[in-house]
């Protein structure tokens, strides 16, 4: 069955195409009877307006693209939910783009979103050297990622988070705590804070990076192998899923948690907290990050000439559990 068109709606309602368009766009005075007939025709036919075509007239699509590494991760799933809600409150719809942790797909989504005339983009991926952002011609806001001086970044206080996690493990008696993260680079503030605090206590810092593009199975295998050959009494994981993999490894190998191995995660998403309420983790203000990113983006879409000011980091907190 062909998708119903505006002409079909007009014919069913017994009005002109121009009148049907005015009803759908809420333009000008129209009688209640005409509005009712058009609304009924829309419902009966299952008509959906072409938002992209409408944007060609108004130069505004009311669409915002959100690019995330993977919605399978609880943090990004929760982030997407809050971004969508914040956008809806301001009259925008969200197009969700899951780039599956690959820079090639991220580049394609950037081109796709710009080609389809979205009003702005929020990105929370961590692929490096994605060139598309530098040549983008629409407002962009990054979450927890620096893309350049002309793109504002909304983030939580990663350095304080790394400090809290490392100091907590040391205070609980860990002397050989390790840090497990996706990528280890100079901009990784959680890893930097971990190294700083370990050095301050005269302890050896060891960082294991499993690779941002690793699948769940590849990540699990790398973590279990590394922990097996690198004895430790504490794990500071850069996210809660990695923390749960370390917890599962401890169970498989007969290590007691927290007696033999103390574990601290990162993110504190509602889904992970519900599944494993006893996980000690650094909780990010996920909803506040999402809402603030939307606020900054809407401001830039309203005034593209406004100067770019980098956002101060939002506070984090350590949520205590039985794993440490």
UniProtKB/TrEMBL annotation:
SUPFAM superfamilies: lambda repressor-like DNA-binding domains, Periplasmic binding protein-like I
Cleaved signal peptide residues: none
Any matching Pfam family: Peripla_BP_3
Alphabetical keyword list: DNA-binding, Repressor, Transcription, Transcription regulation
Domain HTH lacI-type: residue ranges: 4-58
Stored InterPro entries: HTH_LacI, LacI/GalR-like_sensor, Lambda_DNA-bd_dom_sf, Peripla_BP_I
SMART domains in alphabetical order: HTH_LACI
Entry protein name: LacI family sucrose operon transcriptional repressor
Organism annotation: Microbacterium trichothecenolyticum (Aureobacterium trichothecenolyticum)
């Amino acid at each position: 069955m062909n998708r119903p068109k505006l002409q079909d709606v007009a014919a069913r309602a017994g009005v002109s195409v121009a009148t049907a368009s005015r009803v759908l766009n809420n333009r000008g005075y129209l009688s209640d009877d005409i509005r009712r007939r058009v609304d009924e025709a829309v419902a009966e036919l299952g008509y959906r307006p072409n938002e992209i075509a409408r944007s060609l007239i108004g130069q505004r699509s009311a669409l915002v693209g959100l690019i995330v590494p993977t919605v399978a991760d609880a943090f990004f799933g929760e982030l997407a939910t809050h971004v969508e809600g914040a956008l809806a409150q301001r009259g925008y719809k969200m197009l969700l783009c899951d780039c599956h942790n690959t820079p090639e797909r991220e580049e394609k989504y950037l081109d796709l979103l710009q080609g389809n005339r979205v009003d702005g983009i929020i990105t929370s991926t961590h692929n490096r050297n994605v060139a598309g952002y530098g040549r983008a011609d629409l407002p962009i806001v990054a979450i927890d990622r620096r893309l350049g001086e002309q793109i504002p970044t909304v983030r939580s206080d990663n350095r304080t988070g790394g400090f809290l996690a490392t100091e907590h493990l040391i205070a609980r008696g860990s002397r050989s705590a390790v840090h497990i993260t996706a990528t280890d680079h100079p901009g990784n503030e959680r890893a930097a804070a971990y190294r700083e605090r370990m050095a301050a206590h005269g302890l050896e810092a060891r960082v294991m990076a499993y690779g941002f593009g690793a699948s769940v199975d590849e990540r699990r295998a790398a973590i279990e192998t590394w922990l097996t050959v690198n004895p430790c009494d504490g794990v500071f994981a850069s996210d809660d899923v990695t923390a749960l993999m370390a917890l599962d490894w401890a169970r498989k190998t007969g290590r007691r948690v927290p007696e033999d191995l103390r574990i601290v995660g990162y993110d504190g998403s509602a889904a992970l907290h519900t599944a494993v309420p006893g996980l000690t983790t650094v909780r990010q203000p996920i909803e506040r990050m999402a809402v603030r990113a939307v606020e900054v983006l809407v401001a830039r879409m309203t005034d593209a000439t406004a100067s770019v000011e980098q956002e101060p980091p939002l506070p984090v907190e350590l949520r205590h559990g039985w794993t440490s």
